[in-house]
Design brief:
Oligomer: heterodimer
Shape of chain A: globular
CATH class of one domain in chain B: Alpha Beta
Shape of chain B: globular
CATH topology of the largest domain in chain A: Rossmann fold
Radius of gyration of chain B: 25 Å
Structural class of chain A: alpha/beta
Number of domains of chain A: 2
Radius of gyration of chain A: 22 Å
Distance between the termini of chain B: 49 Å
Helix content of chain B: 40-55%
Distance between the termini of chain A: 54 Å
CATH topology of one domain in chain B: Rossmann fold
Number of strands of chain A: 12
CATH superfamily of the largest domain in chain A: NagB/RpiA/CoA transferase-like
Helix content of chain A: 25-40%
């Protein structure tokens, strides 16, 4: 913690900064009327231009999400229902020779998937310490505009699972697909407070820092695989 | 970071003679520039979004005090701490205090231009704390002990052979000395393996912020590698360092700015990881930092807000201006001598360090306007560079010969009849003198030109006379 002297200096710095900012703006206080307008803007949810590409009905919007996610180097498997998820996961593991150990988010919704039907999978629950090859999580929403997943931190949803395992598998329902980022924000605010972390994830980790050549798997996951349950009507 | 901006001319001569640099710079047009050109038409709303982005930033600057207060209040509500720093030294001291409070030995760092601006790495090292850069480009240049040459691609000046050399030196004893590091993939795998352990061992993680959201108290980072997320999630403490003008009112405003940022920077539809952070670990959270600190740096911004270069505070640090600058493409970022290269540096460096140090930078422009044409927040870079040029002239900072020359030209320019007469005379004299070769390899008073290329001899008449002869009209 900062000492008393540092705290006093910091408070003096704060006053000095606000003093200089207000001198530059030519005001000493914000009058009540202006302040009310600014406060209203802060809570107003006013949107800027939303790309027209997302003005689609449910199923074309889901297709847009799938196309955009693939364009960002995510891989996607569409399955009919939750019962098909364990087999889809096993297929992915077999394709890349990944063994059967899974580190999974302790998310109650993921418990509704019949994992026991695949006894070959060894599933443990919780955060990652960096030793896991495969992490499985749910998502809060998905944004069709750019094929982006929206994940929230919380007791059921460790952030480390999104970044440490080499393979990040996200189990998503098609009914979670929304048009634009702003739709994700509305859904989040309607469901409660901001969590500690909101991760927008669009494809696997990548870098272009060596001669501008794009390589996947820089520090985060080498692969981002989405298992999409077709539950939308 | 120590500036060499006043040595711009010498820096440029070295850069033009550096073959590896020229080879690396040659890839920008087919990389960043082509990628942006392909991305723009995929979003028909791009220009409307740029207008909106400019308006949002202007609104923020008009009300910076309000939004900073709101941001601070939300950070405190979410359990974070805010530290105000007037100067680079204040910011360094605040960060050191936080690190010392947990006896930190190593600090991982996400990419931050503000950390470069305040010279954070050298300062931490002097105080016995090891900073580890985790962005691949930043890691490479940290090993080579050099500053970034680009604000989003810090190692863009290097070719892979130079990176291999740096890794063989720094990783000696960690890997088989006979390993092949020819392919970029092999270099990446080696860096990934080394840095993974550093992420897990660090005591403190320091990141910058692309945006600070007033409505929610969120700090936002945008990365492709995921290094920023590992930096801020794994250690006990997360410190965010950002300058005042990074504050944005709402999540909606941030979404608009994000739509123009990635497209302008790399031509991506969206960056791989965009992360919104709100305070420290909550009750029941299985991971995340125990402390969350935001260090807010002024370092001249509050005064710029009321001055002639205020518009530069709209900058969202995408790098498009330097990607598209023919001068940057020829001389590279290090020539500019300080943290911010390219057109944005030509405006920022003289403002932050003074014209005495940075007056060459706004002259390093052909005023072709390509930077302005791609700026996502429509900063009038040419007018701002012109402002610095005028100020340098007013302050009598340029050499006497240059000032006299400009004075002579100004005299003729204010007397059009005399101007036409004198240029006509000079043109005929040069045409006659150069009639055999059609060019000059040396010419009195034009050594600055002819030292590097021939001056073509005039052909035909003056421009103004040809203009009149072809029926061109005066306005």
């Amino acid at each position: 913690m900062v000492g008393a002297r540092r705290a006093a200096a910091m408070s003096a710095a704060r006053d000095a900064i606000f003093g200089r900012v207000r001198t530059s703006l030519g005001r000493t206080v914000i009058n009540t009327e202006d302040r009310a307008v600014l406060e209203a803007r802060l809570t107003g949810r006013k949107r800027g231009p939303i790309p027209a590409r997302t003005a689609l009905d449910t199923h074309p919007l889901i297709d847009l999400f799938v196309d955009m996610a693939a364009a960002a180097d995510s891989t996607i498997e569409r399955v009919a229902d939750g019962g098909a998820v364990p087999a889809a996961l096993s297929d992915f593991l077999a394709r890349y020779n990944l063994g059967s150990d899974i580190r999974m988010a302790p998310d109650p919704w993921l418990d509704t998937i019949p994992w026991a039907g695949r006894p070959t999978l060894t599933i443990t629950r919780g955060a990652s310490d960096g030793s896991d090859d495969v992490g499985v999580t749910a998502a809060f929403a998905a944004i069709a505009e750019t094929g982006t997943l929206m994940l929230l931190s919380g007791p059921d949803s460790p952030t480390t699972l999104n970044f440490l395992p080499d393979n990040h598998i996200v189990v998503l329902r098609a009914s979670q697909v929304m048009a634009a980022y702003e739709d994700g924000w509305d859904a989040l605010r309607d469901s409660g407070a901001m969590p500690r972390t909101v991760n927008f994830i669009t494809g696997p980790s990548r870098t272009g820092d060596i001669e501008q050549k794009i390589l996947l798997g820089a520090h985060g996951p080498r692969r981002l695989h989405i298992i999409l349950i077709e539950d939308a009507r | 970071m120590e500036s060499t901006s006043r040595n711009f001319n010498a820096n440029v001569r070295a850069a033009l003679a550096n073959d590896a640099l020229q080879s690396a710079l040659g890839k920008i047009e087919s990389g960043f520039v082509a990628n942006r050109a392909n991305a723009a038409p995929r979003l028909p709303e791009f220009d409307a979004l740029r207008d909106q982005a400019r308006d949002i930033k202007d609104h923020i600057l008009d009300n910076l005090d309000f939004y900073l207060e709101a941001f601070e209040a939300r950070v405190l509500e979410s359990g974070g701490q805010v530290h105000w720093a007037s100067s680079a030294a204040d910011a360094r001291a605040a960060i050191l205090d936080i690190c010392r409070s947990v006896d930190a030995r190593t600090v991982t760092k996400g990419k931050s231009m503000i950390a470069e601006e305040i010279g954070l790495n050298d300062f931490l090292e002097e105080n016995g704390i090891e900073p580890v850069e985790t962005d691949l480009g930043e890691y490479i240049i940290q090993l080579r002990k050099e500053p970034p040459s680009h604000i989003i691609a810090p190692a863009i000046h290097l070719v892979k052979e130079q990176i291999e050399e740096a890794f063989r030196g720094a990783h000696e004893g960690m890997f088989d000395s006979g390993r092949s590091l020819e392919e970029p993939r092999a270099l990446l795998e080696e860096a990934r393996a080394v840095l993974r352990q550093r992420f897990l061992d660090a005591d403190v993680g320091i990141t910058g912020a692309n945006f600070l959201i007033a409505a929610t108290g969120s700090t936002v980072i945008v990365t492709n590698e995921g290094n920023g997320d590992l930096t801020q999630t794994l250690p006990k403490i997360h410190i965010v360092i950002a300058s005042l003008e990074k504050v944005v009112p709402t999540l909606e405003d941030t979404s608009t700015l994000l739509r123009v940022l990635a497209r302008s920077a790399t031509g991506q539809e969206f960056t791989s990881y965009t992360t919104f952070s709100n305070g420290p670990r909550r009750n029941g959270d299985p991971d995340g930092p125990e402390q969350f600190h935001v260090v807010l740096l002024d370092n001249g911004r509050s005064e710029m807000l009321g001055g002639p270069v205020r518009d530069v505070l709209r900058c969202i640090r995408c790098g498009a201006c330097m990607n598209h600058c023919p001068v940057y493409g020829a001389v590279g970022g290090h020539s500019y001598g300080w943290v911010y290269p390219g057109p944005i540096g030509a405006v920022l460096t003289p403002t932050l360090l003074g014209l005495d140090e940075g007056r060459h930078l706004p002259n390093a422009s052909t005023f072709c306007g390509r930077c302005e044409s791609v700026c996502p927040v429509r900063i009038p870079l040419l007018s701002l560079m012109r402002h610095h040029r005028e100020q340098a002239f007013e302050d009598k900072l340029s050499p006497a010969a240059e000032r006299t020359g400009l004075g002579v030209w100004a005299f003729f320019a204010r007397h059009p009849a005399l101007y036409r007469f004198a240029t006509g005379l000079a043109m005929r004299a040069l045409a006659w003198a150069g009639r055999k070769q059609g060019r000059f390899s040396t010419l009195p008073f034009a050594g600055g030109w002819t030292a590097h290329r021939d001056l073509p001899a005039p052909q035909g008449d003056t421009f103004q006379r040809q203009w009149s002869a072809r029926g061109g009209r005066r306005r």
